[in-house]
Amino acid sequence: MARLVRYKALVTAIVLVTSEVAPFSKSGGLGDVCGALAAVLAVGGERVVTVSPWYRTHRQDARDTGIRLEIPLAGTVHVVAVHHRRIDRVDHLLLANPLYERDGLYGDSGGSFGDNHIRFALLCRAAIEAVRWVPLPKKPLGENVVFHANDWHAALVPVYLEALYRPLGLFRRTPTVLSLHNPAHQGRLPAVLFDDLELAPRWFRPSGLEFHGDLDLLKAGILQADQITTVSPTFAKEIVSPGGGFGLEAMLRHRAADLVGIVNGIDDAQWDPAVDPAIPARYDATHLEGKAACKAALQAELGLEVAADVPLLGSVGRLDPQKGIELLLDSVPWMVDQGAQVVILGSAAAAHARFEHRARELQAAFPRSVCAWIGFDEALSHRVEAGADLFLMPSLFEPCGLNQMYSMRYGTPPIVRRTGGLADTVAPFDLQTDSGTGFQFERVSGAAFREAIWRALDLWSADPAAFARLRQRGMTQDFSWAKAAPAYQAVYRAAWARRNPG
Ligand code: ADP
Q1: 52 and 198 share one domain
Q2: Which residue's CA is the closest to the ligand 1 atom numbered 27?
Q3: Largest CA distance in the chain
Q4: Which residues lie across from 314 on neighbouring strands?
Q5: What one-character-per-residue DSSP string does 165-187 give?
Q6: pTM
C-alpha cells in the first residue's frame, strides 16, 4: 500500500510512444488502440502524453511549441520540431521532421522505406528528449514518468535509456513498458544498419540488438523493458509456445514472468450503431429496424442486388496473409454458390498487391454478388459493419483484432478462426445452450472456414429467432476500454516497482 501511495505521488505522467495515434495517424489497429488507451487512462486520472511522428499524409492542426530537439543519428544531426495539441485531457506531442514528409507511414508503392530504422530511432530518441525539455504546460515532465513504448517502432526507448542516459545518471528510476501489438513486425534488418543507430558496439550482441546475425529492434526492447504486454491473454500464451512467437519465443519465455495479455477495448463512442453518423440509419439491441435499412443501403451503394433475403457477408481489413486473406478469397466462389453476397473492403501493402488483383477479379466474375472495394475508407468500414449480416475474419494469427468487436457491437456476428484475441473475444455459438456471440473454426483450411460459414448461413436462414438472439448477445457485450485501463495501470505500477525496489 505504501508503495502504491509512493507510485501515485511520484509518477507524473504516462508517456505513450507510438508510430500511430488516432485521431492523428492510423493505418490499422495500433492507431486506434493508442488513441483510445490514452483517452481512457486520462479519464481514469492519469496524466497522459503521447509522442508520435507528425506525418505529412496525416497532418492535423497542432501548435508549434517552438522547441527544437537535435538528435544525432546516421552521422547527421536531425532537427525535430515539436508540435502540441491537447484533446480530451491528453497531451499529444507531434514530431515534425523531413523523414516524416513521405507519401506513406511506413512505405509507398515502392515498398517499405529503406530508412525506417532511422525514422523510428528518431521517434525514440526524440520522445526521451521531449520529456526532458518540452514544458507541459509550464515545466518539463522530468524523469518521474513511465515510458510506454509500442511495437518495434518504439522498442528502442528502453534501449536508449539504458545505453545513453542511465550511464550519465539520468532516468535511472524511470520504468518502461513495451506493448506487442503485432510482433510479426520486429524491425529485423541487416546488421550493417546498426551504425546508423549511434549505439556503442557492445549493443550489437545477443544481449542487445543482434539476432541471428541481423538487427532486431523489437527483440532488444523485449530484453530491456521492465514490463511487457500484449493484446490478449491467448496471444500471450501463443507467443511463448514453440513456433508461436515469430522467432522470439525463447526471448519471450525468458521474460514470461513480466508478460501479460490485456484485451484491447474499442472506442464505444465512435463505434455505436445508436448514434453513428456514418451509417444511414441508427439502431440498437432492442430496435433493429435500422439495421435492415443499413443493409439495403449498403447493397445499393455497392451495386449489389438489394434483397433482404440474400445474406451479405462483410470483411474489412488489410489484405494480408495474416488476415487469412487467401482462405477468404479462395472461398468467395463457394459463398456466391451458397447464394450469398460478399463485400471485401481493404487494401494491400505493395508486397501483397496480388490480393487486390484477385479481389477485383472476383468482383468482375460475380458483379451482382461480390464487391471488392480497394482502399482505406473509414466511413465505409462503419457501413459494412452495420450493413452486413455476418462478418468474416479467418486470421491465421490475430494478437487481438478490433473488427470482430465492432461487428458484434453492430449486430453482425463474426466468423473467426480460434486464435489470439479472436478466441478471447468471440464466444462460439451453441444451439443447445443458446449461447455464444459468433462462429469459430480452428484448422487453417478452406474447408474448415467454409464449414463455419455454412453453420452461420444455416442459422441465419433456418432459425431467424436464434440468429436474432445471437446478434443481441453480441450487441450487449462490454468491449469498452474501461476494463483494460486498470490492467494497464497495474502494469505501470509493476514496472515502477521493478525500477524502484524497496
Ligand atoms: P490490424 O491492426 O492487424 O490491421 P485490427 O482488426 O486490429 O487489425 O484493426 C484494423 C483497424 O483498421 C480497424 O479499425 C479497421 O476497421 C481498420 N481498417 C483496416 N483496413 C481498412 C480499410 N481498408 N478501410 C477502413 N478501415 C480499415
Answers
A1: yes
A2: 317
A3: 70
A4: 343, 391
A5: IGGGT-STT--EEEEES-TT---
A6: 0.94
* Segment 350-353 long-range contacts (CB within 8 Å, at least 24 positions apart): 350/107, 350/108, 350/109, 350/110, 350/111, 351/111, 352/319, 352/320, 352/321, 352/325
Q: 321 CB under 6 A from ligand 1?
A: no
127-141 burial: b if 16+ Cβ within 10 Å, else e: bbbbbeebebeeeeb
CATH number at residue 222: 3.40.50.2000
C-alpha of residue 316 to centroid of ligand 1, in Å: 7
Structural domain total, the chain: 2
pLDDT value at 462 more than 80: yes
* Contact status, residue 284 vs residue 274, Cβ threshold 8 Å: yes
Q: Which three cell numbers stand for residue 218?
A: 523489437
Gap between the terminal Cα atoms of the chain? 13
Question: What are the cell numbers at 229?
Answer: 504486454
Over the stretch 182-196, which tens digit does the pLDDT of each residue have?
Answer: 999 999 999 999 999
**Domain of residue 117, residue span:** 13-265+481-499
Going 37 to 39 to 43 to 49, the CA torsion angle's sign is positive
pLDDT of residue 485: 92
Distance 191 CA to ligand 1 centre (A): 32
Write the CB contacts of 490 (distance below 8 Å, at least 6 apart in sequence): none
